[in-house]
Amino acid sequence: MTQAPDAISPQPPLVVSPLATMSSTVDIPQELKASLRKFRFKRRNAGHAAMVVKINKQKLIMEEIEQFDNISIEDLAEELPENAPRYVVLSYELNHSDGRKSFPLVLLNWAPTSSEMSLLTLHASGLIEFQNTADVGKVVEVRDGAEGLTTDVVNARLLQT
């Protein structure tokens, strides 16, 4: 049997990537993306540097709050709020056992348990997108405030094999 010339040939099924259909709850503005890029590529040869980002609940966007240069982990912990989540991109001076020094980028997921639940939910919903945008491999979860963010905690996470 021959097919009529005007017959419609079957089309292959449309395949859509899950990432293409994923909608974001919280937007990352271009200014923040540019600032993250600049922070990532800034040359450092000593100390820790940090960029602190929060979610603006009313506008549903991420906003850069502050940058710190040459700050200790303990001082950074004191600067962060006790009852509000933050994303902290950290350029961390890591001293290896063989004497080498490196400056890996780490994402501190600052999410104190005393934070408002709606803020924690928004914060959690934006974490993966922020991590991907910041292009950070390691994440250090901090839930118990300043007591949970110490040099030992960060070293332990980064030196895991």
UniProtKB/TrEMBL annotation:
GO terms for cellular component: actin cortical patch. This is ADF-H domain-containing protein. Residues 23-159 form the ADF-H domain. It holds the Pfam family Cofilin_ADF. It comes from the Eukaryota. SUPFAM superfamilies: Actin depolymerizing proteins. GO terms for biological process: actin filament debranching; negative regulation of Arp2/3 complex-mediated actin nucleation. Belongs to the actin-binding proteins ADF family. GMF subfamily. SMART domains: ADF. GO terms for molecular function: actin binding; Arp2/3 complex binding. InterPro entries: ADF-H (IPR002108), ADF-H/Gelsolin-like_dom_sf (IPR029006), GMF (IPR011171).
